[in-house]
Amino acid sequence: MSLFQLFQSSLHSPKKMAAFRLIPIGKVMQYIFSYIFIMSIISFIYFINGISDQQQSMEGLLEYFSQIQWLLYPFSFIFLFVLNTLLIFVRISIFAYIGSIILLLRKRKGEFRHIWRTTLFASTIPMIISIILAILQVSNNYLQLVIYTLTLIIIFLTTKYYPVKR
Asked: Which structural domain range is residue 86 located in?
């Protein structure tokens, strides 16, 4: 399956998301790192725009930034990429742990690695919403709560398609 097919199925089919638990980890890592790369590019663009705004207000820094610009931008992109990777992996792992509890409560069979993969694909819609909110520069704790709740609802819907324990 291509990354686009995975993405497309993650938008509308909880049954396929549950089946994605069997996808090889390499394809899962390609999917998550492509998302992290997109998030890092967006963060980097806002970082560059923030530096430009700060440079205009402080004339002394303008010369300093022009001298270290070739060094500042690559390191800041790498830092943003690593930070986004850490945050997204932690977020998916926390939701996967909650998903494993949901599996136990629903008496379904599944290992943590399976629910982790399912959680990644179940997080697609909430991640898209997060990207849109970041682009629009909308930040609100209630919106984050809605995004987290949406993730849990999708995980709950996907666990219905896991095999029943016998």
From this structure: 16-159
